[in-house]
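Minutes, project check-in

Agenda point 3 was the complex the collaborators sent over. CS summarized: two entities, 576 residues total, and the question is how they sit relative to each other. Sequences were read into the notes so everyone works from the same version.
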Amino acid sequence: MVENRPLAAILTHVVLILGTLFLCFPVWVAVVASTHPGEALVRSPIPLWFGDKAWENYSQLLSGGVPSTGGVPLSTMLGNSLIMAIGITVGKIAISLTSAFAIVYFRFPFRMLFFWLIFITLMLPVEVRILPTYEVVARLGMLNSYSGLIIPLIASATATFLFRQFFLTIPDELVEAARIDGAGPVRFFFDILLPLSRTNIAALFIILFIYGWNQYLWPFLITTDPDLYTIVMGIQRMVNVGEAIPIWHYTMGTAVLAMLPPVLVVLAMQRLFVKGLVESEK
Amino acid sequence: MHKRVVFQNRWLPFLLVAPQIAVTLIFFIWPAWQALETSFYLEDAFGFSRKFVGFDNFTRLFADAGYLRSFWRTLVFGVSVTALSMGMALALAVAANRVIRTATAYRTFLIWPYAVAPALAGVLWFFMMNPSLGIVAYMLEGTFGVDWNHYINGNQALILVIVAAAWKQISYNFLFFLAGLQSIPKSLIEAAAIDGAGPARRFWTIVFPLLSPTTFFLLVVNLVYAFFDTFAIIHATTNGGPADATSILVYKVYATGFVGQDYGSSAAQSVILMALVVAMTVVQFRFIERKVQY
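CS then shared the predicted structure for the full assembly.
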């Protein structure tokens, strides 16, 4: 910094430490709660240090599940979440790559119309068109299926724009060189465009994976079969148990398991994550 | 957006855009159109008959005190979430921008909540503030004598969802503020310091104005987040209650349509929300890009 002020330096660290505590404390409490037996969590104050039931609680959750979610083991729910998240991510990236390729590298009728149609999807979040979308999926017979969980969510204006933006920065000379060497559009796409887009694809993959994993309303609406529950929406059935008291040690264990995969992805690939986040919002 | 060199092919481009366009038409445009159409009809609860009623569904909504209250509540909720999360994120970003050696360590601790699903953020805070065993409720009771019970007290329930929603969004705002701060040339700050401006003065006269494009961008993104993405927080915790205290507009669309089965009214609410998103997207793309730049 410009001048040396010890007081300001201390204040800086105080702010950062308080912020870190505020962000981490809820998760600390959840992790601690998930290592205690149920009886430890019935009245205040609850323990703030780990108990000795971590193994029992988590193995019960992963293999046996809890009655309020239909007794589905959480390993099944985690599997469903993974299938949905990967399906949405791969689907979004694949169809966005091809449509951006078409819009940038071809001149064809209705090109701008298609562009605007894709753009409009930005303005129609699931939450505002729940009922009619549900009806469409029901009529197509896609309720309670992986395709119903994945396909309606794979349109992506953001990803298409990102790839379009990137393709526009690729020098024309590359296309010319490829054409002189006799490469057609398909060859150009696979041998030149895809390898060049690698970093962009990886960065976007992280953002979209988190988006897919964290879906809540959509799986809640279209799955009534407990075997297709995803973990993020499944936890809702443990909290909303009506007059009964939620079984907190299991609920918190589920919350920890549900947030672990996306959080690990962010922590492990921090640099790509930041790149993806900043670029996909431009 | 034009390339000089393009490929010639009659059918390939159509094939390439086909999947995206198909999904968009079937799952976005068609349902949105359906919502628009249904909003002009009155349907009986069993779906046997419906009749055209013009703008009745809309006038009924705006005459409904409950809907107007929900509008107001959504505004309070959205503004509180945005102010709280952006304020804290800005303070953290300014601090993180000052430290050099430990910056990466702090950043790691501050960015991960982005990956936590809104529903889970809600559940975490729901547990922390649980009247009988929540640690925060316990501390509030012990230190301030606050009798915390969001099952009964509507305002407390609203505070609960505001805190949970803001908590989840801080990381996002922090990253964008930090990126904005890092793009401000050091020479400007140094020049001001030489002219005798202290840290506070430098922040408000140089840094903050230069950050305004980032701030406005985040303002729109946060409001959109608070209005729409927080559905999960509310649905997983308070269920819109007690007595509709946390029933924001997007929750009401769901409650009216799926629980109340009043399709016409739910569709009319959808249309109103869509108009709101369109307006905000237009603001984001037009106004911000042009006006707020130095």
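Noted in discussion: Chain A has one domain: 75-280.
Follow-up: revisit at the next meeting once the mutant set is ready.
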